[in-house]
Amino acid sequence: HFDPPGPPRVHGTFSHARSHARAQGAHRMAKRKQGVVVRAAGGGALAAAKAAALLAPPTPADGAEGEEPAPSAEAPAAGAVSSGPARKKKRRSKPDGSAAAVQDAAPASPASPTPASASTAPAEAADGAAAPDSAAAAGAAGGDSLEWLCWPLGSKKFLAEHWEKKPLHLKRQRPAYYGEVFSKAALDKHLAEGTPLGYEDRLNISRFDEKTGKKVVLNPGPRGTKVCPKDVNSAWAAGASLQVMHPQQFHEPVWRLLINLERSFGSLFGANAYMTPGGRQGFAPHFDDVEVFMLQVEGAKRWRLYEPPAGEEFPLPREYSRDFEQAELGEPVLDVLLEAGDMLYLPRGYIHQGIAAEDAGFSHHLTVSTYMKTAWCQLMERALSSAVEKAAAESEEFREGLPLGFLRYMGSWHDKTDVAEHGGDSASGGAPSSGSTSAGIAAPRAAFIRRFQGLLKRLQEFVDLDEVCDEMGVEFMHERLPPAPASAAPGGGSAASAVEGVTLDARVRWIDASAQRAMLSTDPETSEPTVMLFHSRDNERDGHMSGAALADAEAEVGCLRFEAAIFLPALRALLALPAGASLRCGDLPLQDADDRVALCQNFLEAGLLELTPSEPEAPAAAA
Question: Do 511 and 577 form a contact (C-beta atoms < 8 A)?
């Protein structure tokens, strides 16, 4: 789990530009932004009125967004859930069950994940639905990884009934469902081949002390010490658990899986692998501040889930929990055996406690998690902070001083309601005998409160949600995994030769349509409309989700900058392309033919576009 990073810097591939701001000019996306400035080869800029018109929102292209398949048919439920004791304070209702058996079906194409289902009531399943072949296929083939993750339930049912609401156990009866995404043998191979793994950075050795109820770390060296295979094997033989952090940094199938999950969810995903010998418990009971998907890759583990004790922030806590003692836990709300191929989903806040099954030899599950600090309260914190800054800059009313002597009538001592609740004289409004809440201060107190409420209402005028979401989008581009490598250029040529070989007849497509994000802005020097195109192409895979990388406020994020008056129609045409679709370079809506070629060359050089075979395809959406 990691703290949110500071604002990133922006860098470009071709040239440099100064800081930019939104048209309102109040909230800065980043302290320093640099990027390529693409200008027309010939012809002057369009008139200011035309440029403003170009910034109007586009009409969505037909077929740009796919629809999820609707589930149908039924499968029998195979499990139930016990409920915990009633709580005194009002809490979200307990989950009432989630385990189901999967009917046999012939494997389908990896790119065609199929919904079926499992839930408390009789589950729904697609008629003749088949399971995707493997996790590697789901990650590499560009399929719908959310459907794959939720199979056989289906993503619509999962999002409607479980996401942020209640746990879910999918019992698939398919031990090889996750394929070769990761394994104990794969870890042993990395250790034997000398893959750089450091203690606390990429691997921890630990055990759970049943007497103290605490986790004991057994790493033989300080943070960063290179892991020795002999030490790992000895600890494992003695019953210790292994925690492998961020396997996506060094193991390609996990990398490709997380690329696809980040694409599907539009949010960061992390991964940790947990390997525990049979009959052992690796960690103390705790809850997480992220949405957790446990993928049981090998062996089996029994999981007990609990609601936290009274006094904890629940549901949907904002912070990771302390370790809980067994005596604090009530009856489990879910008690299941997670076997190879199964999945267990935990909304943030549910305490979980797992013990590896004795007869399975050992347990290995891969945890993938997301949605850290992505709640409405975090969005509002950003939005209101920005709004106060803009309101103070633009309105004298927000800069006026507070009334003289306001401390004489404001504060908890002068709150009639508070005094009455603590035994004050309700007939006198709860006022102390000193008369501190007498009629003499009631009027200015009421005026003070009205003034504050009025300013708070006016503050809504200065909230720019698009600006805040742009800020979050840039951070996502900065922190997410880089896209998978592009396919080879047609004809087997190098990337450089592909750039030089771009013609008006060349067809181009995005390598990963989700790896870039456009933002409309205004050049702070010329006041001309500008398009900023942020991308994750240059992100470092080996730093993904590492604490140092996320905390580096001066880290760079890829960015290209374009004059909107000239290039906006062409950018809209490119960004409207459905995933995998291509566009003929000469069909870009630019007046100058050289500009069409130059734009495609710039994107190819940046590693965002690739050339495709020149066979005719479906026409691109109009700008």
Answer: no
